Amino acid sequence: MDLDRFDRQLLNLVQADSAQTAEQLAEHVGLSPSAIQRRLKRLREQGVIARDAAIVDPRAIGRPTFFVVSLEIERERPELLAQLREWLTKRAEVQQAFYVTGETDFVIIVTARDTEAFDAMMSQLVQENPNVRRFTTNVVLNLLKQGLTIPVPLDDK
């Protein structure tokens, strides 16, 4: 898809705050509010904007603890990988999941109210996914940055 400078500006703006009105966005971009609405609709329909979400303070809802987990699997059989991928994507506690190269096979970011809740989830993961050989966990001591913003350059380079 060809993205022009206006589209790129819009993508940066809505990533920073998707609750901005078309009028507010129009002031920053230099287009009319109706042009902004048409562009945003097109960006959503074409899948450039995958979804809109609110960023919630994890402490405010009793989920202050994060874990960075590396999973190592036994075999890379397609059906076993599909089973694990499905399990990971269905769990609300799993914030992000990456299939990676290197010493481990998956890296996941997990949120939990405490270590006991995390331990229960990981026990269930191992029970329901016997292809998981082992996992290592890093407990996040301080959340320095949280976000999913993708930097969009204003030109196409």
Automatic annotation (TrEMBL):
Q: Which InterPro entries match?
A: ArsR-like_HTH, AsnC-type_HTH_dom, Dimeric_a/b-barrel, Tscrpt_reg_AsnC-like, Tscrpt_reg_AsnC/Lrp_C, Tscrpt_reg_HTH_AsnC-type_CS, WH-like_DNA-bd_sf, WH_DNA-bd_sf
> What are the HTH asnC-type domain coordinates in residue numbering?
3-64
CDD domains linked to this entry: HTH_ARSR
A GO term, aspect molecular function:
sequence-specific DNA binding
Q: Name one GO cellular component term.
A: cytosol
Instruction: Kindly list any coiled-coil regions of this protein.
Output: none
GO BP of this protein:
regulation of DNA-templated transcription; response to amino acid
Sorted UniProt keywords: DNA-binding, Transcription, Transcription regulation
Q: What is this protein called?
A: Transcriptional regulator
